[in-house]
Specification:
Length: 248
């Protein structure tokens, strides 16, 4: 009887020791899993806080976008990128499709002939002064704007942004001073009215640089040496205003 009792006590002791050992093993196993899971969370947070890649930007237009008469770094798209960087927004250097003398259909042709290898986060459009200068009809201008809209949508990233920039008033320059300034301004206003309506219809942002350009006749530093196009100083004012309306 005593031997039987001793055997029973030994058996219970062995079982209890085994259960305790199993419990400890499971706790260690769970601790390992929890540590691994914590590492995954930390890694995930680090990935989420990594710096995003710079925004891509393409500027479409004419002499006012290519910066006739100024150095490359003084063009408004290039200065816009600099202004954005100073405000903590990182852009790649701008892609520019623009030439002096281009009308809306010249820009359309250039876009159609370009082999785009990527889409863009930000797209600007500043076009129309040569339509006005060459007395092209306003309805042709408006029809071309709709075609340009289709092209911009084609090269824009999902969630990207398009801005429309008003046509500067070349009448308020030494070059334009010999012409009928009031007539030029009236025509520029007509084209800009179409641009503003176009922007509103398509839900796009619109920025007026025309009023800045009209200071050129009294502020020589705002005009480049050709007596017609904006200087880098004026383009910087444009860049800041465009940034404040478009990005800030």
């Amino acid at each position: 009887m005593r031997l039987h009792l001793i055997f029973k006590i030994f058996f219970l002791f062995t079982v209890m020791k085994g259960c305790t050992s199993n419990t400890n093993y499971n706790d260690e196993d769970l601790n390992i899993e929890r540590d691994d899971f914590s590492d995954t969370l930390i890694l995930g947070n680090n990935l989420n806080t990594q710096r995003e890649s710079p925004y891509s930007f393409i500027a479409l237009g004419d002499s006012y976008t290519i910066g006739e008469g100024v150095n490359e770094e003084e063009r408004w798209p290039n200065q816009f990128v600099d202004v954005a960087y100073e405000n903590g927004v990182d852009f790649d250097q701008p892609m520019i499709i623009a030439e002096t003398g281009w009308k809306t259909y010249d820009l359309l042709n250039a876009i159609n002939q370009t082999n785009f290898t990527k889409k863009y986060d930000y797209i600007s459009l500043l076009i129309g002064v040569n339509n006005q200068f060459n007395s092209r009809p306003i309805d042709e201008f408006e029809e071309d704007l709709n075609k340009l809209m289709d092209e911009m949508e084609r090269i824009k990233k999902n969630g990207g942004s398009i801005i429309i920039i008003s046509i500067p008033d070349w009448g308020y320059t030494p070059f334009g001073e010999s012409s009928d300034m009031s007539d030029i301004s009236e025509q520029i206003n007509l084209f800009n009215s179409s641009l503003k309506k176009f922007a509103s219809t398509n839900g796009l942002k619109y920025v007026d640089v025309t009023e800045i350009s009209r200071r050129g006749i009294n502020e020589p530093d705002l005009i480049t040496n050709d007596n017609l196009h904006p200087s880098g100083i004026m383009y910087l004012e444009w860049a800041k205003k465009i940034y404040n309306i478009w990005i800030d």
